[in-house]
Amino acid sequence: MRFLTSVSHAPDEASAVAELLAAIDTTGLASMLCYYTQDYKPEILSANIKQSFPGIPFIGCSSCKGVMTEKGFHHGPVVSIMAIYDKEPCAYGSGLVDLSSCQNYPQAAVHVIEQALKHADRAGEVPSLIVLHATPGNEERFIEAIDMKFGTQVPIIGGSSADNHIEHQWSLISDSGSTTNGLAMQLFFPSKPLTSGFSDGYSPTEYKGTITKASGRIIYEIDGKPAKYVYKGWIRDHAGEHISEQYIFDHIARFPIGRIAGTVHQQPYYKLTHPLQLIVNGGLELFAEVHTGEEISLMTGSLEQLISRASRVVKEANTKNYRESMVLGAIIIHCGGSMLRLGNKINQVYEKLLAQMNNQPFICPFTFGEQGRFICGENAHGNLMISSVIFYESE
């Protein structure tokens, strides 16, 4: 099993795919992942990839501003591919569904799984890994459906498709087509073992409360008070900053909301979410689902923490590589909001990742929601998170 990444900044879909094809050896190619900026039309991009790489399963999603590989951070316009080479008894299969008229999201997720199993010729089997990409909105439902379908928590790595300015210019692609409102999965039955990691890298502040009224992805009240005023007050009291409703996106990567996901050695670890907007009735709309009765904390993270956390998540995932076998490659999902806050310092993230990966191939889109498997084994959806899967040589 081996990995190869390729990147193109060509301005149109056909030229970009032609450049990628020229850089990739198709002999032994088993699967591909593709990440691209909103500059490309997904339906044309997916059609060109399918024509240029016939019979190869692939999925991918749009990424905020750029993509990162072991070759660097690549500003958009950009299309990037990770080519996965593998031998039998490996299998890979993808599925995609448009959700524009969907009324049952768990059922739609099961449909995509069945598509992917059929394409992999592994009906009735349990994969080693699921790569999940969805447009923002129902990620929790999809994870629940995956866990129920297989009756066990198959490791998931995923990212919600993104654009440059939260203007719904996001999309998904696969060898089955494309969509601007949907779900795509690729099921991995690889010939080599893998490990996974999922973490936040933020710390709780002294400010916390209980959600006393919520529905879906909206918090209406915290401790019986309008949620948006409580949130703004926490930031004012913690950091001495007054945030306006027009510029909330400038603050989300600095002050997310955290919920305890579990504990390790009596120390809590958190699942993060961040506000999408403050709404007129005093509510706080988020990028992830919350529930009445949950305790939440205002979280904060320094730039130094954000710079080092991606390589730390990769390092923590690799600690499960008990034999210290050679790393072959990795898929890494990085939050788009954190990347925007880092600005040019994203290059320091790249340097730390490259060193941690020992220069081996990796691909990293910047997403508006991250899915992964926590240290205690549960799959979850969060925001401002880092998710990783590392493949390594078996003995």
Automatic annotation (TrEMBL):
Sequence intervals crossing the membrane: none
UniProt-listed Pfam families: FIST, FIST_C
Species lineage: Bacteria, Pseudomonadati, Pseudomonadota, Gammaproteobacteria, Vibrionales
GO terms of molecular function: kinase activity
SMART domains: FIST, FIST_C
Domain FIST: 29-226
Record-annotated FIST C-domain domain positions: 227-374
Protein name (database record): Histidine kinase
Keywords: Kinase, Transferase
Keyword Transferase in record: yes
